[in-house]
Structures are given as structure tokens and as C-alpha cells.
Amino acid sequence: MPATAANIVLPIVNNTVTLRKARVEDCELMLRMIVSLAEYQGVGERISVTAADLRRAGFGATAQFEAIIAEDLGKPVGLALFQTHYSIWEGTTSLQITDLFVDEAARGTGVGFRLVQEVARTARDRGCTSLQLNMVHANPSKTSLDRIGFVHQDDLLHYRLDAAAFRKLIEADR
To answer: Residue 8 domain-assigned?
Structure first.
């Protein structure tokens, strides 16, 4: 059942956790967390990105994503990757969290909440009006999103062309 503003449950926050913007030298770490997230969701075979790809896309001339890393007493325990999204229908900009990972030992300690909250604050500071997040159906952490206040949009279906289907579409006779 979707959360409403009246029943949002805020977690107890771990005060030893600090958040920081990811740096180019974090790309290997980010890759390990991305792979761990995909494996946790049961879709590890979908990962083909490399640390070099992350360096190019996240820290090149035109950044395609941004990232925040959570550390507990200096040890990396979480990651939020996000990008800008513009809604043609609403005429507004939002940030979209594309990947949210919390190390298994840190789950349930408020690290995920802190990461989402920091992305939301970044969105607010940039004049965005909302925050979006996609999640694989198999992810057992879906209830955490409800507690934060995210509402699942049953009227939207997320579709994607994988690399092979993308090439087939491009190469199809007109």
C-alpha cells in the first residue's frame, strides 16, 4: 500500500555516518557497490559498466550522473547515483535516483534514508519539485520506499530496449 504524508516513518539515524559527493577516484568503489546492488536484486548478469565507463560518464566534460557516498567511520557503506529528469507533462525538473545501495551490514540503520534525503535536499537546492526512484521488482527493500513516502505509480510502466533490441530497431528497414 502506498505511503501518504500522514504515515511516513522516519528511521533512527546512525550518527557515525557521513555523506560526501563521489570523486573520480571512487569509480572502482562505486562499481563494486553497483555490482553488489545488482546481485542483491538478482540481476547481476545485467551489469556491463566498467570503472572507466563511470569515470567518463560521471566525471567527464558533461557529467551524465552524480553520486553520493555514505561512510561509517570512514568505511564506505552506501551509494546513491542520480541524474536530472525533466517532465514534459509537468514542465518541471526532478532528480531521479538510478541506483541506491546500502552495504548489508548497514541496512536498517538509516543509511539509505540519509542518502535519499541528501539527494532530495540537492533537488530542492536546484529548484526541483520532486524526486524519482526506479526499483527492480525483485528488490526486497520496496517497503523502505513506502516508509519514506514514495508512492508507486501503477499507471506507469517502465520499458527499455536492451543493446541488442536497440541495434535491431535502428537497423530495421523503414
So the answer is: no
Q: What phi and psi values does residue 67 have, to the nearest 5 degrees?
A: -145, 150
What residues are paired with 131 via a beta bridge?
A: 95
Which domain does 87 fall in, by range? 13-171
Domain containing residue 78: CATH number: 3.40.630.30
Name the nearest CA neighbour of 94 among 61, 119, 64. 119
Q: What pLDDT digit, counting tens, does each position of 68-121 carry?
A: 999 999 999 999 999 999 989 889 999 999 999 999 999 988 899 899 999 999
Beta strands in the chain (DSSP E): 17-21, 66-72, 75-87, 92-102, 130-133
Cell numbers describing residue 170: 535502428
Q: Cα(38)–Cα(46) distance, rounded to whole angstroms?
A: 8
In a domain, 61, yes or no: yes
Domain total for the chain? 1
The pTM of this model reads 0.83
Write out pLDDT tens, residues 14-70: 678 999 999 999 999 999 999 999 998 888 999 999 999 999 999 999 999 999 999
